[in-house]
Every structure is written in structure tokens, then in C-alpha cells.
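Sample pair:
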Amino acid sequence: MVAMTSINIRVLSLGLLLLLLSVTGSDAGMFISKVHVQVKNEIGEGVILSLHCKSKDDDLGVHALTFGSFFEFTFHPSIFGRTLYFCSMMWGKQFHYFQIYVQRRDEEVCPTHCFWSVFANGPCLQNPGFGVHHMCYKWPKGVV
């Protein structure tokens, strides 16, 4: 039997790492499922919500949401548990910022689908099994 040299072990390890990363980042999603996030304007009739969401790597652009309409996006969360998407929200003279997806906060609550409704006093995460809002947040202080 031939002993593996340290170079062969490194090449094999690198190959396995590249295979793992390519599979987790692909649509196959063998190790980590995709997450679908939806943000809905529930502020009020006639109010247009300007929504701008992004992560460290992806800018999803600015979207004008009429009352009852929504914006949605899908992504693969990090294998390291650090995925973060944040949104700025503006209507009338109001401007607010919210972390719409924090992997460590949301991966147990909404592992594959996160449905958010934006109200004047803050965003609420909907419980998809019951169709009710089960986690509402006030707008963070310091950003008005």
C-alpha cells in the first residue's frame, strides 16, 4: 500500500472542501435549504412603502410597495450562521431600518419561509402555520 504524502492529503482535502462549498451554494441545497423572505406593506391604505433591502454581498434594490403588496427574495444562508439582510423603509416623513433576516435569530422560527408585515409601529413576523403575527418588533431607537 502506498502512503499518502502530505501534498496528496492537502490536495484531497482542498478538493473535498471545494465540492462541499459548490454543493451548498448550488440550487441543490443538499446541506442548507434556501430561505424565502417576503416583506408586505401593511402600513395603511394609500401609503406607499419604499423598501431597500441588502446584505453584505447583495443589494436587492429599491422597491415601491403599495398597501397590501409585497417584495420577496430567496437565498442560501451561510453554513457559518452569519447571514444578515437588512432593509431601510421609508414612507411619508418616516424612515426606519430593520434587520429583516438574522440567521441566528430566525433559523429556528422561520427556517425556510419568513413572512414579514410592515406596520407603522414596526414589523411583525407571521407564523405561517397559523396565519397570525407572533413576533412584532418596535422600530429601533435613533432612526426616525
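The chain is about 15% helix and 40% strand.
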